[in-house]
Amino acid sequence: MKARDTRTTREQDVITLLGSDAPEDVLRRVLADAGWDLGAWRLTALHHRPGAGATGVFSVEAAPGAVGRCGAGPRRRTAPGPVPTHACITSYPLPHTPDGVTVVHRRGADLSAWVHPGDPLLPGLPAALDPGAATPFAFGTGYDPAATLLELRSYRPLRRAVVLARNGDERRYLKVLRHGAAAPLAERHRTLRAAGVPAPALAADPRQDVVAMHAAPGTPLAELLMRDGAEDVEPEALLRVLTALPAEVLSLPARPPWAARIRDYGEGAVAALPGEAGRIRRLAEDIGALARSSDSGPRVPTHGDFYEGNLLIAGGSVSGLLDVDAVGPGHLVDDLACFLGHLAVLPALHDGYALVPQALARFQQAFDRRVDPVALRSRAAAVSLTLVAGARRRPERRQAADGAAGAHSVSEAMSRLQVAEQFLADAQRLRAGSA
User: Fold this and answer.
1) What are 54's strand-pairing partners?
2) Which of 30, 122, 144, 227 is the one with CA 20 to 30 A from 86?
3) Percentages (nearest 5) of helix, strand, coil residues in the chain
């Protein structure tokens, strides 16, 4: 068996394990190591990074652990801190085993587990979720920590997290990163804002690998797409913010576009839809070949993760450009393909995106005038293929005996696969027509 097939099979096995009843004893052990007894639990999210591993996020009910007592029944431990609500299990190979991480071997896989928020690669997460520590950092002195409300808005285990902090009418966003990543991100924000690009303003200098930002103004583009297909947002508004990225960005590290790692992402899709392995691998090969043979255009400053979730709109213009971690040199076509690839999968995500197909056609037509249409579609196909694995990683509940709980996830994954195929078919048709 090829090394690629072996790796994919191993990751499929871990994904299956995390979605089964097997994690219960791992969760019980990691909670016991922290002084807690496990009650009810369920898988709430599953993150897969092709070639790196899979991580399950579990909601848990916990009680202080029992302690034996001579001549009497067991008593409960003094609670060792706030009652845990979540725990994580990963197959990602950690560089070392820090305190608070429990390592077990299950079904041929080495698994590391921890009680949230003790993420071993995000050391700033506990402080970002502690009002006493987060309040003076995010808001400054004079704010009462008791009035601060903290909400974990997004969490990619071992990679990053975003915490929304509220105190009265004030809002801040705390972005928690891996060690050493906060200072470069803060510098990106400063560089972009100095050039007039609407990245969020910093609220403080980075601390403990956390960046504190003011909330950017505007309405999320995703909300406008759901409201009316974002009919008042002209494609030129998106192009303007991209062409405003300053030349200094060209000196930053380059991030490979999705099409450059299409085989790896294809294996992620195979792990999500193993019954479609041959179909997916052929698709990945065809996307890669067409992307490599098409015109990517000149090297320019790029955002690197340009899609509706990272755009706020006010008065028809981009008023907030979010998640600028990947800003660096690249090709305009890849930013535009990222936007189209994400846009095309929205209708299968929620019925409220019924007008998105019309918006997709409108944006695609405008983008065709700025970049090579074959390159645009082949790269949008690559982006859509990368999203196949993510469709399966958002289970709403543990799978029922009849398999119904997993049905929606598989359907969504298949829909994303079909979107990638349609983009590729359109690119091939254009290529054939121009030959």
Assistant:
1) 48
2) 144
3) 45, 25, 30
CB 355 within 8 A of CB 225: yes
Distance CA 95, CA 179 (A): 13
DSSP-assigned beta bridge partners for residue 48: 54
Please check whether residue 54 is in contact with residue 79, taking contact to mean a CB–CB distance below 8 angstroms. no
**Alpha-carbon gap, residue 26 to 235, rounded angstroms:** 49
3-state secondary structure 228-281: HCCCCCCHHHHHHHHHCCCHHHHHCCCCCCHHHHHHHHHHHHHHHCHHHHHHHH
Terminal Cα distance for the chain, rounded? 39
Residue with tokens 């294809």, as numbered in its chain: 266
As a whole number of Å, the CA-based R_g of the chain is 23
Is-contact 97 103, C-beta < 8 A? yes
Residue (of 131, 32, 130, 132) closest to 87 by Cα position: 32
Q: Which residue has the tokens 């190979």?
A: 93
Q: Which of 192-201, 330-339, 388-397, 425-434 has the lowest mean pLDDT?
A: 388-397
pLDDT, tens digit, for every residue of 267-316? 989 988 989 999 999 999 999 999 999 999 999 999 999 999 999 999 99
Query: Phi first, then psi: what are they for 117, rounded to 5°?
Result: -100, 30
Closest CA to 172 of 131, 216, 127: 216
DSSP 356: H
Both tokens of 140, joined, read 């400054």
On whether the CB atoms of residues 111 and 104 are closer than 8 A, the answer is: yes
Phi first, then psi: what are they for 138, rounded to 5°?
A: -80, -40
**What is the pTM assigned to this prediction?**
0.90
Name the residue type at position 242: L
User: What 3-state class would DSSP assign to 408?
Assistant: helix
Mean pLDDT estimate for the chain: 91
Q: What is the pLDDT of residues 159-196, one digit of tens each?
A: 999 999 999 999 999 999 999 999 999 999 999 999 99
Using alpha carbons only, give the angle 348, 239, 373 rounded to the nearest 5 degrees.
65
Q: Is there a contact between 431 and 424 (Cβ–Cβ < 8 Å)?
A: no
Q: Which amino acid is at 291?
A: A
Tens-place pLDDT, residues 370-423: 999 999 999 999 999 999 988 754 443 333 333 444 444 558 899 999 999 999
Q: HSE (CB half, 13 Å, CA atoms) of 391? A: 31
